[in-house]
Amino acid sequence: MKISALLLFCLLHLVCGKLVTKPRVCRNCTGKIHTKRELELAKLPLVIDKSQICTRGKRYEFFIIIKSGSFSKRNFTRSTWAKEMKENFNIPILYAIGSPNNKSIQQDILLEEQQYHDLLQFDFLDSYFNLTIKTTSVLVWYDQHCSNNSDYLFYVDDDLLISAEKFVLYMARMNYSDTLEGWFESSGKILRTGIGGVTKENFPIDIVPDYLWGAAVLYPSNIISNKLIKAIYSTKLPIFFRDDVFINGFVADEAKIKRQQMQGLVLYDRTEDRVKDNMIVIDFTTEEHRHRAWNCLKYNRQCNQNLLLTLFKLISGCILTAIILVYCYKIFKSMELFQVLTNHSYVIFYEMKALCQDNINTIMILRRRYCPMVKCRKVKFTIYLILHSKRTYVRLGFFLMIVLVLCYLF
Ligand SMILES: *[C@@H]1O[C@H](CO)[C@@H](O)[C@H](O)[C@H]1NC(C)=O
Ligand SMILES: *[C@@H]1O[C@H](CO)[C@@H](O)[C@H](O)[C@H]1NC(C)=O
Ligand SMILES: *[C@@H]1O[C@H](CO)[C@@H](O)[C@H](O)[C@H]1NC(C)=O
Ligand SMILES: *[C@@H]1O[C@H](CO)[C@@H](O)[C@H](O)[C@H]1NC(C)=O
Ligand SMILES: *[C@@H]1O[C@H](CO)[C@@H](O)[C@H](O)[C@H]1NC(C)=O
Ligand SMILES: *[C@@H]1O[C@H](CO)[C@@H](O)[C@H](O)[C@H]1NC(C)=O
């Protein structure tokens, strides 16, 4: 019975997983591990520097560096949240770019710099496989020039949206911390295939520690200067190109730097206008969606476009709930319920708490904390998907199920 239930959940997980994961094909998977020498590229003088931004005595609330590879994303960012951040709150924002292997593009970059004065250009080829070098360069640069001028570096991708007001408030309320914050991914197996994966010969360790996605990470300045950079340069691990897994995972773990979920940071969801209710939205499917989300936030235009998808999610949510209800009713009858519940009662309790708080992030964190086992995680992932759909009556159905189960128990 339990096996069949697990199979069912796995199936659902698979089906639902298909909807959220982007397929990525690996065209050329070599060159994913750097040598120590390559890491020294991060210490080269910059092509376009900005050290003058942090003169002595100048203080900033916090500092933002945007990891960027595309002019159009920078252009959109400059005219939206970054503009508000700069003009309304006086937060410094720089765009970290590498060097192109094409002279005419370098010409464009110089023109862009003349116009906006906000580029930090490093002297190595800008490429997905050079991400760890880029992030290390940013950390080294920040440490050398700006770490005494602000308590935090917020290092983000160029394809997210931030509510400037909310984030400034969030930072103002923050007590000084020694913890990295971002989108928390709990420990799991390392990816062995696809563009982000690495072979066993190149990187023999199977388990990735808890890490933060590269999309948006808040680094306290003293952690950068006193721990992180040293740890990056002294680690004995192979230097893996994925900066998030390597720096925010392996290296941070070795250096005993804490990592946690940032509250108010959510993943983009095509069926909801999440920017309004949250502080930061990451993981947009396309730039088009990011533009729409901004238009929705600022001008109340183009909100909740995808009716079909909303409908699909609604219906699949209901079906999932129904399946779970039927399933629970069956075990309820077969008296195996008690056994299942003693295994999972803590899950249900905390789910319920999270449900009441109506907070997806809480659920994500609980998912990690109370679901160390993979088996259990699958169940929780399905539950998470249902809650995630945020439709009142889907939730009601789910809630009903919990009540039913609890009524039986007590
Ligand atoms: C793959 O990368 C290697 C080394 O970086 C290079 O020599 C090779 O030409 C590349 N192959 C393709 C198909 O791009
Ligand atoms: C840059 O963004 C502005 C809007 O802020 C837009 O008018 C302009 O066309 C964009 N430029 C390019 C080259 O995309
Ligand atoms: C360099 O980039 C420009 C503009 O993107 C393009 O027209 C040109 O063909 C590129 N040159 C080389 C050598 O790749
Ligand atoms: C990373 O940058 C170095 C230095 O510019 C370059 O030689 C190397 O080809 C780059 N790696 C990739 C994968 O593009
Ligand atoms: C920052 O302050 C520390 C301690 O006072 C000092 O050692 C370091 O040189 C300073 N860094 C910069 C870039 O001024
Ligand atoms: C910050 O510290 C103060 C006093 O120690 C405490 O009252 C407050 O709740 C803390 N705020 C946060 C966000 O932790």
UniProtKB/TrEMBL annotation:
Name this protein carries in UniProt: Hexosyltransferase
Tell me where it resides. Answer: Golgi apparatus membrane
What PANTHER family has UniProt attached to this entry? BETA-1,3-GALACTOSYLTRANSFERASE 6, BETA-1,3-N-ACETYLGLUCOSAMINYLTRANSFERASE
Determine the domain of life of the protein's source: Eukaryota
Q: Which GO terms describe its cellular component?
A: Golgi membrane
Keywords, A to Z? Glycosyltransferase, Golgi apparatus, Membrane, Signal, Signal-anchor, Transferase, Transmembrane, Transmembrane helix
Family annotation (InterPro entries): Glyco_trans_31 (IPR002659)
Topology with respect to the bilayer: Single-pass type II membrane protein
Entry keyword annotation includes Thylakoid: no
Q: What is its EC number?
A: 2.4.1.-
Identify the species of origin.
Answer: Adineta ricciae (Rotifer)
* Protein family (similarity comment): Belongs to the glycosyltransferase 31 family.
Q: Which GO terms describe its biological process?
A: protein O-linked glycosylation
Where would you find the membrane-spanning parts of this chain?
307-329, 392-409
What is the residue range of the signal peptide feature?
Answer: 1-17
Q: Which GO terms describe its molecular function?
A: hexosyltransferase activity
Q: Does the keyword Transmembrane helix apply?
A: yes
